[in-house]
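Following up on my earlier thread - several people asked me to post the actual chain instead of describing it. Fair enough. Here it is, all 226 residues.
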Amino acid sequence: MTPTPAAISQVLAYTGSPASVDILTINTHHATMTHIDALGHIAPNGMIYPGVAFAEVAMGGTLRQGSTTAFIDGIVTRGVLLDLAPGGRIDDGHEVTREDLENAEQRAGVRVESGDALVIRGGWNLATDFSMTLPFLSLDAVLWMGEREISVLASDIGDKPPMGGAVMALHAFALPRLGLPLIDNANVTALAETAANLSRYSFLFTVGAIPVRGATGIPVNPLAVF
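Reply from S.P.:
Thanks for posting it. Predicted structure:
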């Protein structure tokens, strides 16, 4: 039904409509949110990538270097999925090595190459499985990623909790020493199902981030396009 001119005029003349606004306070770095870590998120011995003192770049509550500013134009590259446990999940407490990654490559018939976004599926959900002994990526696996020169890592598993002096290979080495941005707590279930159905484990990988400058991390929604 087409509204009459009188009805349109009545609507346009009414200025008493209530409006709602929002103020968002986001705690980015936790296990219930998919987010990307900027290179300045962790500063072992007070240093961030590429060997810059954290104290020199942190001021006024923001970072002048190694921040989310690098992500405001988005990320677009080839993505590769390595599924460590097709149809299931890897054992709790399992330490993922380069051999695990290379075995997943062989199963998928794909090779991780320079500039790729690497997506790793272990079959875990950090938000719901955190009370268990989570599997984690070893320093050996991270060194392999460095050798393959990947550009970003997205995964549903992460680091060994830093108790008892354990090395956090991703956050204490890959991020500040290799300059590897990390997408934590990625939900890769649908991606793994699609890849298996298509028998295709490479795709267009895209990330659009809220254009927030100077932060240590930001929520993201990575997408795989086949």
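The chain has a mean pLDDT of 91. That should answer part of your original question.
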